[in-house]
Amino acid sequence: MLTLLKREITSLVLWPATYLIAAAYIVISGILFIDLVSANDSADLESYYANTVNTLLVLCPILGARSLAEERASGALSISLSWPISRTAMVAAKFVANTLITWLVVSISWIYYIRLDAIAEPEFARSMGGWIGLLLLSAMFNAVSLAISSRMNTSVGAAFLSFVVLLVLRLIAFLPENLREKVDQFGPLDRLNPMLDGVLPAEDVAYFVVLSIAALAVAVYSLGRRRAGNDRRVLAQRAAAVVGVTVFVVATPAVAGAASGEIDLTPGNRETISTATKEVLAQVGKVPMTLTAFSPTVSLEASQARATVRKYAAGGANMQVRIIDPDISPALARASGVIDYNDYLLEVGGKTQEIDDLVESTVTTAIAHLAQTDPPLACFIQGHGERRINDIQPEGLTSLAARLRIIGWKTGEVFLSGRGGQELLRECGVVLVMGPRSTMPNRELRMLQDYARGQGRLIVAADAVRGDVEQLNQLIVPWGLKLGTNQLRDPQSLADDPAAIVSSRYPSASSVVDTLNKDDTPVVFSDSLSIDKAGPDSEEGPQVAALVQSSPKSYEVDATGKRIPGTEGVHTLAGFTYTPEREAAGETPRLSSTRVGVLGTADVASNQYQKSFGNQELMVRLVQFIAGNDVIISAYRDVGQSAQFQITGDQRSSLIRQTVVLPTLAALVFVPFVFLRLKRG
Q1: How far is CA 542 from its chain centroid?
Q2: Any idea what DSSP says for residue 184?
Q3: CB of 329 within 8 A of CB of 380?
Q4: Is the per-residue pLDDT at 590 higher than 50?
Q5: How far apart (Å, rounded) are the C-alpha atoms in residues 367 and 347?
Q6: How many CB atoms lie within 10 A of CB 112?
Q7: Mutual orientation of helices 232-250 and 202-224 as an angle, nearest 10°?
Q8: Angle at which helices 87-106 and 124-149 cross, to 10°
Q9: What mean pLDDT do residues 155-169 have?
């Protein structure tokens, strides 16, 4: 075997076309890499890996045609077959030699990674996963090409037929959805996609390995078969072999599907669902789920939808994916109630919900809510000048209410003075008091106080301009927080609105702000009051956590807008409070059911700022946290997005030199020596 392998590698090394093919691949690959990086402004190799598959459609058939069909045409194969060597060893040697050459050429991608790493921050896990995927794919392509070459008498015919067969496998990804779902288990591109995200599923790795083995078995049989004429026994053997190989190839997806598990190369196992999500899926059970992506069949959104379904299915979800192109299938899109591109629809047990992204916390939240028989209710108190959820003006809350409905909440307004107001409070998953501008009757204030004491979930936001701050303090002081009486100003504010503080200071490790802190996403608080602790610190009393703070240069102003001396420093703009409980001495404290969130201004939730910065995420996650959806919030995973950057003209020229010109010259420099060696014999 080693002798045969050495012979095959030497033959390829001394074949001038090897270097010409490598040079051509490097040029095409380099141009493709630079064009994709420039067009996408992305320091990522995912698009490159997905598109370079097309070059392997040509490279592998050429190597396979040379290995057997060309030798058969020249008569060299007959001589080799007369040697006392195993046909399996002969095929294996040719396959390994061709694959090693292909892997060497494909590994040019690491030069791209190194050069990108010098000017941006590509993710190593995605680059490694894509490279491993290309190695597996090229090995399978070489095996298929070798199998076809073993049956052909000319190298041209072998190369052409191999190209056609591989092209058919490649085009499975572009079939209409109704045809694609019947044969997509044979498509290599879908098997490659998870690896481009940095995940190596055992099922997909097994697919490439099993199909390669099947193709090599065909090649071995072709070299060992008899060529007698009408011998019935020979014909029966050939028919049995054809049937056996066909069954083996067709059964490849099923055989690969028997493999389980995966290797997640991404930081923090980002492409593996969290423990929190697994707990939600365990509660839901095997309820059928369908994730529908409204996008072209071949698109980033469709790929992300398939990756999401794969990830959840690996965690035990009974989930399927469906891709609908609104232009190609407008009737299906309209029937689903969605007509725009890049939207998603999740169906769980016959109930559907539209979601606007595929972040794990969003999908898991939707699953949990759709699986509930009664979705949670977010109650907005009304009757005292509060912001309204049906007000489309800048001060209204229609954007926040719509976002809550997207993630599976019901929203409603509650008039405490109305009939059945107190009974309705008991049905609320969370109660929001958003900037009352008039004083509440004492009876209604006591209703809210009783609600909070009775393990209620409360969010209180002030209106610093016209609100009764002292009354709000009566509501929240028992829980360890109080609102200041003076508005805040901060040099870090919007240019056209000095009262609108822009902050990205998140002192808490709470899941409410962890993603904002990680991404350094600011939030805007307009006309905000400060939030202070009320009462001494105590292990037994209410525990206070600040969520958002102003800069150290912020200060308070009086009613005329003048700076109040001695107030400069860090001020809390948003926070929450809870009361730890102990069942026995020495036990770890646990949260009581009562949670109270406090915002220095209701403007943070208004339409004017909900589409700006991180205000919407802050509000939605605060509602979830105060309502007690800690499990769902902890399902958040950072989205694996490529680092964005703008390539300059100098950087582009440098990339052309270092990834195209120099590697091509390095490949061609050996050609004269090879020709000289051949000339000398």
Answers
A1: 38
A2: G
A3: no
A4: no
A5: 8
A6: 21
A7: 170
A8: 140
A9: 90
